[in-house]
Amino acid sequence: MKRFLLILRLLLLGDGEKRAKYLKKHNILHAIGNDVLYQPFKIPSEPYLLSIGNNVNVSANVNFITHDVIQTMLKRSGKYQVREENLFYMGKIVVHDNVVIGSDSTILYDVEIGPDAIVAAGSVVTKDVPPGSIVGGVPAKVIGTVDNLAKKRYKSMVGRPHNHMPMEIINQFFWGDTNNKSR
Fold it and tell me: In terms of pLDDT, which residue wins out, 179 or 53?
């Protein structure tokens, strides 16, 4: 019931910054830093095994998986030696400072991400993400560096509109017209 109420509370909070502050205030995770954006409505089943650093953006629908149930299958099969006291295998997840985790990604136990790393949307992270790298795919592999992305972004931002500009300017840039119509 406690877990259900926590998820309900996260659903009711308006944005990812408020969710992160709530998780921090109530010590839900092992650790959570400053300037965190936490968009998911759910938390891992063992939230005490998740540590999030400073300046981390966790996009919508990210899953942090802190355990598996392989032990149960091994035990029930009768073919394998298992430790009776371990019902399932648990592991921690550490997200270091200055990290972005793209939407619909899954982060498995026994993984460290970053610092200064990006996980592309839809990735399944099964092993450590090196500092300063961009990973993507299933399973996630290094596909670039944050340094190269930052340089490319800097150059591409010249003359590009931002979200606080009038809609006419945004439409003109992206669609070649000033109409605000759906296509």
Answer: 53
